[in-house]
Each structure stands twice: as C-alpha cells, then as structure tokens.
C-alpha cells in the first residue's frame, strides 16, 4: 500500500447519534502505532472525499481504529476528530446516532476522522480519555500522510464523547493541545449532570464506568476528577457548545455553565441553542427547524481553524 493511502481509498461525493434520551440515560451515563498508516481500502470512481477505513491508531488490550475522510485537493487542511457517544459503554466510529454529523463535516472542506475508543466497564475511566489523546497524537504524527495542518486540529464529540473532548480541550496540555472543541450536549460538571449527591445512591451502571463502589469521599473525588470544569484555565481551547433545551439526559444548563466558566477564564466560547431539541443529533434530524445548527457550526469551525 502506498504511504499516501488516501490516493487509493474509497471515494464518495461531497453531498448530502445518539440514542433517544431515555435509552441513553438507561445505558449510562495503547500504545501509539508508529508504522505508516494502513487501513481497509476500497476503490471506486467519483469525485469528493476519499475514505480510508479501519486505520489502526493504537494497540494494547484491544486494537483501536479510525476512519479518515480526506477532501480533494493538495491541502494541507484543517482537521476535525469526531468522538462518538454511548454512555461510555457503547457506540463506535460509525454509530447511526453519530452519522448526522458526517455531511456537515464534509461541507467544511476539512479532513476529518471518526474514532473508536476503549469502553467501560472493561476499560473504565481514564482509558477513553487517553484514547482520544492517542488518536490526536496519531493524526498529528501522520499529518503529511493525510494532508492535515497539525496545529489546526479540532475535537468534536457528542454526549459521552463530548465529555471526553471537553476534558481534553479544557486541559489542553502538551502534547494534546487542540485548536478548538465542538461539544454537543456534553457534561461540564459530572456531579450535576449525573444527578449525584455525596453520600447518596450510586447507580449501578456508574460503578463500572468510574470503578467506584459508593459516593463516599473517594468515589466523589473520582467523579470530580473526571469533570471538565475542574480543568478550565486561560489556555483551554476555544469552545462551541451545541445543546437542545429539552435534553433530559444531559441538562441544557450544562452548556450555559460551560459558557460562564470559560468566559471567566478568558477563553473564547459560543453557544448554539436548539430550541425544543431533545438528546441526540439523530433526533434533531426529524424536524427541519432543528437543522440550523449545521450551517452555524460549519461557519464557526471555518472561522476558528482557517
């Protein structure tokens, strides 16, 4: 295989989530590869993006893979890494509840990647966060292969995936700095999002996610350690929050809270409110009135990354 794998990839035209709130709420809520990128390659005719599927970006207990979507042209291009939700315990890089974001990403003209990460309870926190950072390192390390501008990479996540990108972007620490973060209904304060009280009941599903047995002092400390609000500082990445007002899985108030905290730290941030939107971009596909976020998101990314 050529060291420029997109040259022989599956090509698709440049045209054109998450589970319903109750299902998500019930569900819960490696080492870097140093070789040249390889993946499952399918040839086809037609213009537009080239897709390189199942590129291994990390090994270890499990093999982690990503799909690369490379636009036509010489580049280099800004890039977006897309992180799926699924309550930290489910989902993958091609999940149906993630797919409504594919077409808007094509319209950016950027390279973009959708990734897998290790899932709880087999791999509890902090495994998934580490995998997002490893995917970021892989894309940056192979920037020439994918025609990517290594200093113009954004993270985008939805639901549990937004929690992960919120953490990475709020910390924004070397070597995992990013140029921007797009957070779809992502938790900022986990104790509030999960409706937890110190000394109160701990849902069984969360024990495996955070490897804790009770909301005693160590258990609460673990939850707070995983809360993005703990890491916001002046050098956090610029953020765009996108959230529906009728979200029952991650309360809408989490995004205004993020706005308040980031602005207090002097970090640029913006909020797109989806009036009457429930949890999951896949649910927003049902009504045209919910679709306005797409053009605004594209404009924000182009302004931030170009």
Give your account of this protein's structure.
- Helix content is 31%, strand content 21%.
- By secondary structure, the protein is an alpha/beta fold.
- Strands 1, 2, 3, 4, 5, 6, 7, 8, 9 and 10 form a 10-stranded mixed beta sheet that branches.
- α3 packs across α5.
- It is globular and about 55 Å long.
- The N terminus is likely disordered.
Topology:
Layout: E1 10-12, H1 21-27, E2 31-32, E3 49-59, E4 64-70, E5 77-83, H2 102-108, E6 111-115, H3 127-141, H4 143-146, E7 148-158, H5 160-171, E8 180-184, H6 190-193, H7 204-210, H8 217-225, E9 239-244, H9 254-264, E10 269-274, H10 281-284, H11 292-305
Parallel strand pairs: 5-6, 5-7, 7-8, 8-9, 9-10
Antiparallel strand pairs: 1-3, 2-3, 3-4, 4-6
Give the beta-strand count.
10
The poorly predicted ranges are 1-9, 13-36, 42-47
| Helix-strand makeup class | alpha/beta
SSE series: EHEEEEHEHHEHEHHHEHEHH
What is the 3D form? Answer: globular
Share in helix: 25-40%
**How would you name the oligomeric state of the polypeptide chains in this document?**
single chain
Report how far the terminal alpha carbons are from each other. Answer: 32 Å
Mean pLDDT score, rounded?
88
**Count of helices?**
11
* Main β sheet profile: 10 strands, mixed
Short account of what is shown:
The chain is of the alpha/beta class and 306 residues long.
Give me some keywords for this one.
single chain; 306 residues; alpha/beta; ten-stranded mixed β-sheet
């Amino acid at each position: 295989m050529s060291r420029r794998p997109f040259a022989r990839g599956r090509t698709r035209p440049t045209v054109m989530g998450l589970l319903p709130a109750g299902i998500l709420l019930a569900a819960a809520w490696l080492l870097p590869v140093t070789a040249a990128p390889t993946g499952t390659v399918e040839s086809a005719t037609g213009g537009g993006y080239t897709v390189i599927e199942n590129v291994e970006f990390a090994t270890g207990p499990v093999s982690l893979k990503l799909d690369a979507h490379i636009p036509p042209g010489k580049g280099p291009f800004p890039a977006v890494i897309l992180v799926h939700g699924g309550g930290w315990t489910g989902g993958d890089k091609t999940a149906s509840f993630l797919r409504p974001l594919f077409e808007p990403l094509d319209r950016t003209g950027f390279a973009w990647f959708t990734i897998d990460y290790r899932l709880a309870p087999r791999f509890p926190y902090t495994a998934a966060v580490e995998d997002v950072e490893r995917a970021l390192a892989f894309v940056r390390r192979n920037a020439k292969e994918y025609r990517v501008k290594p200093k113009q990479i954004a993270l985008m996540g939805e639901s549990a995936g937004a929690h992960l990108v919120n953490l990475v972007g709020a910390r924004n620490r070397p070597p995992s700095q990013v140029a921007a973060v797009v957070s779809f209904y992502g938790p900022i304060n986990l104790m509030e999002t999960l409706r937890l009280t110190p000394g109160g009941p701990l849902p069984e599903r969360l024990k495996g996610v955070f490897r804790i047995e009770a909301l005693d002092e160590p258990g609460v400390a673990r939850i707070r350690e995983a809360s993005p609000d703990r890491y916001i500082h002046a050098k956090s990445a610029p953020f765009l929050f996108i959230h529906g007002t009728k979200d029952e899985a991650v309360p809408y108030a989490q995004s205004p809270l993020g706005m308040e905290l980031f602005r207090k730290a002097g970090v640029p941030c913006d909020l797109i409110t989806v009036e009457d939107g429930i949890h999951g971009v896949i649910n927003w596909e049902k009504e045209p009135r919910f679709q306005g976020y797409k053009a605004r998101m594209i404009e924000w990314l182009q302004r931030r990354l170009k």
